[in-house]
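Subject: for your reference before the review

Hello V.,

The reviewers asked for a structural picture of the protein, and I figured it would be easier to keep everything in one thread rather than splitting it across files. Below is the amino acid sequence we used in the manuscript, unchanged from the supplementary table.
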Amino acid sequence: MSIGPGLAGRADVRRVAALLDRYFAAVNDRDYQAYAHLFAQRHLTPREFAWGYRTSHDSKAALVGTGRLKGGLKATVTFTSHQDPAGSPDHSSCIDWRITLFLHRAGTAYRIGTPPPGYRAALHACRFAPRPAAQRHPGHRSSGHASSQHQRSTHQRRKNR
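And here is what came back from the structure prediction:
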């Protein structure tokens, strides 16, 4: 997990980066229990998680911004996912994502909350991938990782990974 310019050194950013490290490790390791513990409330069943993230692998994660949120903060994250094109929201094997996670304080840590109605993650096919146009996609990870499922549940069910 890299941290964008101007964010390093802040205690809240270190806590967010730690949460994001655990999040991406849980997705890449397909560890539902670790994944489920990161959320303020349950958003995916074990079966939905297994189906949604079955072929995906995330890399190049970066925390690029934070903003205030009542009881927590918003974290803007970019990352690249690789997955079976049949299960991706834009039918691409590689997607660059820009998402916002709505984080709520849980003691000294944060938990991932539900995005507000109408929230949409930004995604576009990687430069070398067959899909040329950038687009906004409703629902985080519809196919499992960060498209429609991801947006519905905050990187919860994005692109049928």
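For the response letter, the relevant points are probably these. The chain is about 25% helix and 35% strand. Strands lie at 2-3, 57-69, 72-82, 94-106, 109-112, 120-125, 134-138, 144-147, 157-158.

Happy to draft the paragraph if you're swamped.

O.
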